[in-house]
Amino acid sequence: MTTDSTSDRSVPDEVHETLMEATYRALCAHGYAELTMQRIADEAGKSKSLLHYHYGTKRELLVAFLDFLLDHFEQRVEETEGDAPEERLRFLLDKMVPDEDDDGEYDRFGLALAEIRTQAPYVEAYRKQIAQNEAAIRGRLADVIRDGIEQGVFRDVDPDRTATLLFAALDGARLQRVVVSEPDAENEQTAATEAPNEVRAALETFVVSDLLREEGSQ
Amino acid sequence: MTTDSTSDRSVPDEVHETLMEATYRALCAHGYAELTMQRIADEAGKSKSLLHYHYGTKRELLVAFLDFLLDHFEQRVEETEGDAPEERLRFLLDKMVPDEDDDGEYDRFGLALAEIRTQAPYVEAYRKQIAQNEAAIRGRLADVIRDGIEQGVFRDVDPDRTATLLFAALDGARLQRVVVSEPDAENEQTAATEAPNEVRAALETFVVSDLLREEGSQ
Predict the structure, then answer these.
(1) What are the chain B neighbours of A168 within 8 Å (beta carbons)?
(2) pLDDT tens digits for range A76-96
(3) What's the distance, CA A209 to chain centroid?
């Protein structure tokens, strides 16, 4: 889908998708600091001038990429509409931990994203797009919790505050893991490597189970 | 206190403290990318050559600084020994959210730390020290929870997993806040700005209250 970026000269959907996926692969392969338009073009099998024509600068392309991630996330959330609230909540939480067959992509992309995020205070366009993406994640989590409360499946909690906890916990765990990740991990690093799955399990115990608890049983 | 860094040529305790506090102020003022030995020396009112003599390179100085933060944290934890477990736990959690009279230091230092952390995968010495610091924070939180369980004040949970959740949640909230922080915050950014205090409140509801719940009342 097309973005509403000013530098986007009506890039066709298919080309946009190809270029955004190439950006993802280039970020995983090279990290943020070493990312160049040439590397993205190489990944896409397109010319560098095509990238500049459609997106402008590398910064503008990255803002379009963050917006693409947001669209992707919203689509996945939409696909779960109609499912039970506890199922939808667990689906969203599970999406924030590494897959069983993850080959390092969770770490590599997590690090690239963390690098872009620490640039945000210096780059207005990143900051705005990141704020929007993260507000959307919190918002969708809160919607699911709100639905659960309305349907009488979840007990009555503050949906926004609970969503903020869920997102911050899994986001913090990912950051802690990616910054110390290395193949030959030592003892101290094991705790960080396991943080995403440990946090996911703790959220099940302390939050999801609590939401499902019958009112008045505390 | 002295560090056991190889490049530390027996810096006297008082000088070490002065230089480490100057490093803290220089990081808050300039961020990680713009940090120079000269700026730290200026903050300390010392010569740049003194810094190089005692610590070696800027990287080595920053590793000593991370170790200084760890000592500082351990000291604060020690000072609470003897207090009730729930009091100690709340003290540690409160230390991870902005003070009421915070003048932007929480954000500026939080961002500088995040910048150092995203360098960790590329700088072995940072990675090791950061892994050690974060393992210590998780470890002290787990110790307090373990004490509470042994004293019969907290219900029986997995202390390490619970500590991992607490640390990740407050760490993630801080990251989310610092990367989008700006004086003229818009709507989407408000949620991120409030994330640390919202997460702190949610942890009280979902974790601390749960720990204090009487066994068998679920």
Answers:
(1) 168-170, 172-173, 176, 195, 199
(2) 999 999 999 999 999 999 999
(3) 24
